[in-house]
Amino acid sequence: MMQKPTVALVLGDPAGIGPELVAKLLAQGEQREKANILLIADKDELHKGMEIAQQTFSYEEITEAQLPTYSFQSGVPALIAYKCSNPKPFEYGKATEQSGMYILETLKKAVEYAQAGYVQSICFAPLNKQAMHLGGLKYRDELHWFAEQTHFDGFVCELNVVDNIWASRVTSHIPFKDIVSNLSIQSVIDCILLLNSSLIRAGVSQPKIAVQALNPHGGEGGVFGDEELTIIKPAIEQVREKYGIDLYGPFPSDTTMHEVKRQNLDGVVSMYHDQFSTALKLLGFERGVTVQGGISIPITTANHGTAYDLHGKNVAVPTAFEAAFNIAVRMGNGVLKSE
């Protein structure tokens, strides 16, 4: 029988829709069968999620000491019950220090278990950056916090995924006026390599990757800007020559999705935050997934927020979270194959 990956599943922010989404995911038997699932969760909040979703599932509660020798039963998640070091009760429907601390502490546990080899990947329900900053986050986002936790100082970027199309970006959370000064041949190369390795880990044996131009019409040979000539094309040529990766472009922003569909490409490297993600979200916002790209541990989540206003209403749609879990399973399988 083929070995299943073990996926650490984290509730995200209990003040939002995270526990409800976890309950709706794990109430599906076919999802539970895809992997060994290690829940790291406040038991009370997990059960509140089941109550909100009006759906239940069986699990086995275990201790951290049991992890090294624990044998999963097929379709039965294991729960490590975790209480936040801050004993205050959660306040639902808003960002608080309490939920921020809980998010950081449970994610830290998940990373520790991955580093110890107990899990191959991590999937977390939606979290809130404001709450995390209130709870002690010193970085602008969770990706750079994950990089610190894993002692990684190389190139990182969020990967956005809808269906079978993956996207990375050379620059991300910076002002638009700073994009050009943050582009270089090496940064474009790093971004291409990151996306290629992530696709391979997700089971795409020979990724076909599009690279976007920066300027209108791809610069028109330098008439509308020369970054394509001085940065983007040299990066593409170096990667092709050194790594043999199957690259296409550079394509102007407004025709990239057309080329991806026409040539059945697997991924897109964009130059800035919204360049390709706008088209990707139009393709399927309700199915969007974010992958923490660059670090050694595959980590995924739904590409939407905590939806504080929906807490307790049983209206959260789990489609994106299910997609995030499925990618965590695929990438976890990739880790197993590389061991």
TrEMBL record:
Protein name: 4-hydroxythreonine-4-phosphate dehydrogenase PdxA
Keyword Acyltransferase: no
PANTHER family: 4-HYDROXYTHREONINE-4-PHOSPHATE DEHYDROGENASE, 4-HYDROXYTHREONINE-4-PHOSPHATE DEHYDROGENASE 2-RELATED
Key words, A-Z: Metal-binding, NAD, Oxidoreductase
InterPro entries: PdxA_fam (IPR005255)
Organism for this UniProt entry: Gallibacterium trehalosifermentans
Pfam families: PdxA
Keyword DNA-binding: no
Enzyme Commission number, as recorded: 1.1.1.262
One Gene Ontology MF term: 4-hydroxythreonine-4-phosphate dehydrogenase activity
